[in-house]
Amino acid sequence: MRTDVQRLAASLPAAAITRATRLGLTLAPHTAPELRRELLSRVAQLTRSATGERHTLTAWLGDVLAHGGPLRPGQIAACAAAAGLDAGTLRNAKMVCARIPPSRRHDALSWSHHCEIAIAFSVPDEIERWLSLAETEELPTAELRRRIRVHLAASRRVTNAAESEPTFRLMRELRAAARVTDQQRAVWKTWSPSTARLALDELQPLVQFVDALRAAIVSDAAPLPRDPGAN
User: For a tag site, which of 186, 197, 215, 231 has the least CB within 10 Å?
Assistant: First the structure.
């Protein structure tokens, strides 16, 4: 007896695909563009009319869009309308299918598992690590989503800390220079014009730095331009 997936696949142009599973379509290589367009149209029709296998059909659409050659402007939006899907859902499906080809999907996991991982990560090795983790630990989708969020939050904290370290070092050096300058006030106040000019030449990078800071502050404080059409 045929499964629902097999019945759906039987209604597609056989020459355009080599394998159909609940998690995706493997497209036949060197398929003519018109046959791929027919395949996309047929899968969209199935998605709109089928009462079940919604995730499978969304994955199939994603595969045709991701691996079916260049897309025309507006093609995803048109396909989403034909399939009765939100265009954002279909864009996500295309991205998931591009990041996780059919050969790398885990049969033990759901389409939702693959979506959670592929939307969060783009590096193949990292994607595979999370797929293996979800399968090995038999994680429900909600728990997988929670773990990914915790991981990403921790990664952002590490990144922010690394980015703040150069700022911290620079601020420390600036404070030290400011202290020395203040402590030596009696010295530089007695400098001749030629010595002052020499000091300015030496401090040119610092002068540019101060000018840039002032410009940033002025730009941030400047009022927004008034809308000519406002009353």
Answer: 231
